[in-house]
Amino acid sequence: MKPTDKKVCFVIMPFGQQGTVEYERNFSIYRDMIKPVVEGCGYEAIRADEVEHPGSITRSIIEYLHRSDLVVSDLSGRNANVFYELGVRHALYRAGTVLICRAGEELPFDIKDYRVLFYSIELSGPERFRKDLQRRIKAFERYQQSTSDNPVHDILGDKICLLNNRDYISLREYEEKLSKTAIELQEKEKEVKDLQLKLQEFARDKKAEPEDKLKEINNPKPGDRFTNSLKMTFVYVHPGKFMMGNTEVTLSKGFFMQTTQVTQGQWKALMGNNPSEFKECGDNCPVEKFRGMMRRSLSKN
Q1: Do residues 126 and 63 both lie within one domain?
Q2: Rounded to whole angstroms, how far apart are CA atoms 104 and 96?
Q3: CATH code: domain of residue 65
């Protein structure tokens, strides 16, 4: 299938043997009644016998059924190939298939409840059909996000889970998205494990501190300081009162406060990442973005 900037409409229909009346009739329906409408709606129209592709014609047909934005299926004559291709398309996509049929023919039981455009080549039949086909294509473009046009997706849609690039994707693209999501989840899981290991290391470092040092931290005096394994120095602020402008503030409990802002190097050592926007100045620069919850966590360590 050749790449194209236009949307593609693949037309599946009976052909007949070249040189026969049947072939000429079917080709004139495609040329005069289907193709002008499709192209007028902004699609490139193509039939299987117009495909320029070496090798298996069946392969090309399946590729077009998969890649085409729209498919027009002519059910006239109950052609076996057409119905096989229609089944493939219905399994692939929940919307984007327009059914047409020669007037006077009876539809098979499985699809008789779905909208079919009947056409006639007599009198005003072609012009009326062209208008109907244009309306059906425009309706597909408006309602494709919410409407299924085939029994496969009406019954199994929640199990098949197919959506196009605009509103659903193909099975292959769906599987690719699942694979990408799985990789992203694995990466996130690794980040979580790395963080857990760092927190465990901090816990071990804290337990390894000398007993007299722990006593000093647990029973601090005004001005007492301690430095943790990240070289973060904290000073004890004792309870008391002070004036903040014209307001008297009372601290009922003492606490340790780091003597400097958390540096980017300290943050990376603990968290494994750097949320700062200004990373160029190095590890000794402060972290200008971090949450209060993390500030409390760092202070405790």
Answers
A1: yes
A2: 25
A3: 3.40.50.450
- Tell me the average confidence (pLDDT) per consecutive run of 10 residues in the chain, 301 residues long: 73 90 92 95 92 82 92 94 94 90 91 91 92 93 78 78 48 70 86 83 64 58 79 84 80 83 83 80 78 46 47
> By 3-state DSSP, what share of the chain in percent is helix, strand and coil, each rounded to 5?
50, 15, 35
DSSP designation for 34: I
Q: How many domains does the chain have?
A: 2
Residue 128 lies in domain? 7-169
Starting at the earlier edge strand, list the strands of the sheet with 233-237: 225-227, 233-237, 255-258
Do 71 and 144 form a contact (C-beta atoms < 8 A)?
no
The answer as to whether 150 is a domain residue is: yes
- Quick one: tokens of 235? 């000073």
pTM check: above 0.85: no
Question: How many Cβ atoms sit within 10 Å of the Cβ of residue 215?
Answer: 10
Which parts of 133-181 are beta strand (E)? Answer: none
d(C-alpha 109, C-alpha 91), whole Å: 18
